[in-house]
Amino acid sequence: MSYTAASVAKEVGGEVIGDPALLLTGFASAERAGKGDLIFAEKDAYFEAAEASGASAILASGSLTSATKVIIRVQNPRVAAAKALALFYPDPVAIPGIHPTASIDPLAKIDPLAEIGPFCAVGACVRIGARTVLMGGNHVGRDSVLGTDVRLYPNVVIYPKTQIGNRVAIHAGTVIGSDGYGYVFAAGKHLKMPQVGHVEIHDDVEIGANTAIDRGALGPTVIGAGTKIDNQVHVAHNVHIGRHCLIMGQVGFAGSTHLGDYGVIASQSGIAGHLKLGTQVTVGGKSGVMRDVADKEVVLGMPAVPDKQAKRQWIGIQKLPDMLLRIRELEKQVAELMPKA
User: Fold this and answer.
1) Which end of the chain has a smaller Cβ tally under 10 Å, C or N?
2) Spatial contact of 31 and 54, defined as CB atoms under 8 Å apart
3) Which domains does the chain show, CATH number per domain?
4) What share of the chain is helix, strand, coil (3-state, %, to 5)?
5) Contact (CB, 8 A) for 151 and 133
6) Do 107 and 89 form a contact (C-beta atoms < 8 A)?
7) In Å, what is the CA distance from 137 to each residue of 46, 158, 207?
8) Which position among 171, 237, 240, 258 bears the catalytic label?
């Protein structure tokens, strides 16, 4: 697929400096770019490498110009790059129809524009919207609803009563609506507390591979609109994640915790149960959150504390070896000053 520089500029909201009729055929890094490729330079320091590359055009900001490349001048090169990549490499279009190996309950309602791939199982009273794609090996439990333009990658499992909005992508091996981890101790053993809730995933959510989102114990587990969840994340029962959050790899949420809108939880962090994390909260990598976190607060560490406090602690720990040496020297000097027995 190819586009002129002018059509790319229109798509990304930019201005062409040079030949607007230049034909662009792909998008590449500076190291791999060749004739017909578009690249981006989000900082002036990267522009030199971009100009020296084999690319034909550069997405750049400011007043940068080139004698050898067409420039598509934009406000934010990284945002423009995201739009240009989607232009050159769009998601495959749904091919309407149901594969002959798929098992579809007679009470399911599947839009004629949806695509149901091989070895999928769709339960009773499921509703699947237009242009939604089940790539293969997917199980969609009874009474679930999938909106329009949903994409389930291979081997995604959707438990009963799950509600999925529009333009949601769920990557391979992920399980939505699995049993919440609820037990009560009685008569010397752990008695299972039935988990009878469901999961609600709102519009424009993307969920990475091998992630597990448990259904609520009674009410819903909720993933807010626009939130992006990385691979190997666990979201326990009755967790509410707000809108436009970023949840990175190997994060775990214990049950009934609420995260406000625009939160960022960095990799390998654990969030204890029944906590409230406000809007625009940031949790640093490998942190253990054991208390509520206020709006816009940044926390780090194990257990997580405000970022400035955590950094002071880290600096103090780094100084401990030298402090120990000084203490030993002081102890030696004190011992020499003590009267001899």
Assistant:
1) C
2) no
3) 3-88 (3.40.1390.10), 97-305 (2.160.10.10)
4) 20, 30, 55
5) yes
6) no
7) 43, 11, 17
8) 237
Check pLDDT > 70 for residue 306.
Answer: yes
pTM for the full model? 0.89
Strands 282-283 and 37-41: unpaired
Mean per-residue pLDDT for 316-335?
A: 91
Look up residue 91 and give its two tokens: 């998601």
What pLDDT is recorded for position 341? 65
DSSP state of 293: B
- Kind and range of the H or E run holding 15: strand 15-17
Q: Which residue has the higher pLDDT, 310 or 299?
A: 299
Looking at residue 294, the DSSP 8-state letter turns out to be -
Q: Which residues contact 61 (CB under 8 A, 6 or more apart)?
A: 42, 73, 74, 75, 76, 77
- 99 an active-site residue? no
Long-range contacts, 266-271 (Cβ 8 Å, 24+):
267/230, 269/304
